[in-house]
Amino acid sequence: MTYILADRDAAWRVASRFRQLRGDDYVGGFVLRRFESFVGAEVRTWWVEGSCRLVTAHPDTLERLPAAEFDLSAVEASVRALDLPFVTADFALRDDGRWRIVEIGDGQVSDGHAAPGLPS
Questions:
Q1: Residue 50, burial from CB neighbour count under 10 angstroms (0-12, 13-18, 19+)
Q2: What is the pTM of this model?
């Protein structure tokens, strides 16, 4: 039902009705999601002081190397704006050919040693 996100009034009606039906059992807030179709394996990037230092296969799919056409230029400014000393960012290729950031972390990944090109 991704269409409902474009219509705020309709989204609010659905959320309000859901809240009403849940009554006292309602806990927390609402999360609106839009699902996207991804193709291929994720790519993990390793950033130091806002600069990408390494692009690797994602540790879950080490046998699947990043696509040659992977381009970071669209996200460099955003990662740099985080102003963090070390960042890992995982990307997935959408079925329309655009890359999407699917996860950003502070580098405290337990599987970092397994990624090709990193010291163990």
A1: middle
A2: 0.65
In this predicted model, what pLDDT tens digit does every residue of 56-67 receive, in sequence order? Answer: 888 888 888 877
24: pLDDT confidence band, cut at 50, 70 and 90? confident
**Percentages of the chain per state (helix, strand, coil), in multiples of 5:** 30, 30, 40
The sheet carrying 99-105 orders its strands as: 51-57, 38-48, 86-94, 99-105
47 has a pLDDT exceeding 90: yes
Q: Give the residue among 115, 118, 120, 119 at the shortest CA–CA distance from 61.
A: 115
- Tokens of residue 27, six digits: 């806990």
Rg (CA), the chain: 19
